[in-house]
Write a structure and sequence with these properties.
By secondary structure, the protein is an alpha+beta fold. Helices cover about 35% and strands about 25% of the residues. The strands form two sheets. A six-stranded mixed sheet has the order 7-9-6-10-8-11, with helices on both faces. A five-stranded mixed sheet has the order 1-2-5-3-4, with helices on one face.
């Protein structure tokens, strides 16, 4: 594949998305306007790429659903329903499918979402799961609203999932990090509290720096992030020796990265307390373009990679 994922979207598929609901294919969701805004998102997970084929089937199901719920959370949407498409290799057994369904059932109960339908087929390739999730948000938080002078925040801690993936590949036991990789924690309560406060938001899937780059691009601003302020869990600090650069360029965090006017800082922190989700101020928005990770010397860090790339 000669182009990046985003170049392919812009060059080949964006011209097909001429309805305003598609937002130019420049956001995580589509927006179906009516008396209430219907927010729609979709993600596909592939064995050997997004999860290990021998992961517990209930965990695979929960990850497949939760990565979509994370997109809804970042828009401030309430989850409503979802569609499920499965491409199953011959190795999948009825017992595996029942365990997979139990994982979905547990998350449906936790997040108040229901299955609408979908499709199922066999495949000679790896197990592939595609979910399309629907939510409701009166005032969804898009990528395009960041303004110079805004503060940049991120929820939770960054890099844990990347650490969990590294631990699994190295066959090391790090239960907390591995759990963070296998079972994301969509910040739905926080997202809903950020409506009317955040100027732009998205969920961190490809990596903090890479994903903030999407806000910078669509909002036409420059974002500066201080490496020293990126929140790291104690477990990741021990595993990666406090390497904030590595954490900021790992993927699969599924935290919310967002911007908000400086005058609303106290209200953002109060909303986070009510949602029982920690948020950390990590940078600022200024005129210009792109994203810079600022090191202890006050200079931009020269990054070999900014995050996960699909191609």
């Amino acid at each position: 594949m000669p182009q990046s994922e985003f170049a392919v979207i812009a060059d080949i598929f964006a011209p097909l998305a001429r309805t305003p609901a598609a937002l130019g294919l420049k956001d995580d969701v589509a927006l179906l306007k009516g008396r209430k805004n219907r927010v729609v998102t979709t993600d596909a997970l592939i064995a050997g790429v997004d999860f290990f084929a021998n992961d517990p089937p209930a965990d695979i199901a929960r990850k497949a659903l939760r990565v979509n719920l994370s997109d809804l959370a970042a828009k401030g949407a309430k989850p409503e329903a979802y569609l499920l498409t499965l491409a199953l290799p011959k190795s999948v057994t009825p017992q595996w499918l029942r365990a997979f369904a139990r994982g979905l059932a547990a998350d449906q109960k936790e997040f108040g979402i229901a299955l609408l339908g979908g499709d199922m087929s066999g495949t000679p390739g790896p197990l592939t799961i595609s979910i399309t999730a629907f939510g409701i948000a009166d005032k969804p938080i898009l990528r395009r609203g960041a303004k110079p002078g805004d503060i940049v925040f991120v929820s939770g801690t960054v890099g844990d999932s990347g650490g969990g993936l590294a631990a699994l590949k190295a066959r090391k036991r790090h239960a907390f990090l591995i759990d963070r990789y296998r079972i994301p924690q969509p910040r739905i309560a926080l997202g809903r509290k950020l409506r009317g406060l955040a100027s732009a938001a998205l969920d961190v899937s490809d990596g903090l720096i890479a994903d903030l780059g999407h806000i910078a691009e669509v909002s036409k601003v420059h974002i500066a992030v201080e490496a020293a302020r990126i929140p790291l869990s104690p477990e990741l600090c021990r595993f990666w020796n406090g390497d904030a650069v590595r954490a900021a360029t790992a993927g699969d965090d599924y935290e919310i990265a967002f911007t908000a006017p400086r005058r609303l800082r106290a209200r953002v922190l109060a909303a986070a307390r009510v949602a029982r989700t920690p948020v950390t101020e990590i940078g600022w928005v200024m005129p210009g373009r792109g994203v810079a990770l600022i090191g202890p010397d006050g200079k931009a860090v020269d990054l070999v990679r900014r995050g996960w790339t699909h191609f």
